[in-house]
Amino acid sequence: MRVDIITLFPELCRVPLGESMMGRAQETGALDLHLHNLRDWTSDRHHVVDDTPFGGGQGMVMKPEPIFAAVESLRTVASTVVLMTPQGRRFAQPIAREYAAKEHLIVVCGHYEGVDHRVIEHLVDAEISIGDYVLTNGAIAAVVFIDAIVRLFPGVLGHGQSAADDSFSSGLLEGPQYTRPAEFRGWKVPDVLLSGHHAEIAAWRKREAGRRTRENRPDLLT
Ligand code: ADE
What CA–CA distance (Å, rounded) separates 206 from 211? Predict the structure, then answer.
């Protein structure tokens, strides 16, 4: 998948999307990542990207011209254009799966108090929020969005199974996991996991996943 991220802070994306599995996805060509500085599409001497809001109010609003210029220079018929904003549709695993099937994503990162609404009405295909909180900067949200999508590509995770077993894929949170030592500071790993009884282990895991979901995320069960 080709991904173009348009942001005032491309360096914020470079390391998180260049390390570990995202780095490997770039090496194998599964992820073809291009980071762009929005200021490269300004035409004035001071590279201004924002202005005060019409009607008054606090803060600054991102101007439409550089955003339209950037997207229009990168867009093809195969592109989907996404704006990262706390006013967007709330991101979740099913949305990651939906976007993992796209050919080309152009991700526009908001900043300041907001983005001129003509960008939303006439340029982007979707507005995405990564959760009900406000970040200083959409570039951080873009990193989260792209990481969750790219890890679903075949071969990006170590085991073919891993993405299917994730929390949320089954509708429940993932159950507890243990590794060696079998006893640590007097705390023992549950006997069933050492028993070798695959059916009992599977039943235990299902029960524990249910318990964890009830405790931490009862909203997933309703
Ligand atoms: N920009 C600031 N906060 C955000 C959020 N929660 N999601 C996406 N973009 C954002």
Answer: 9
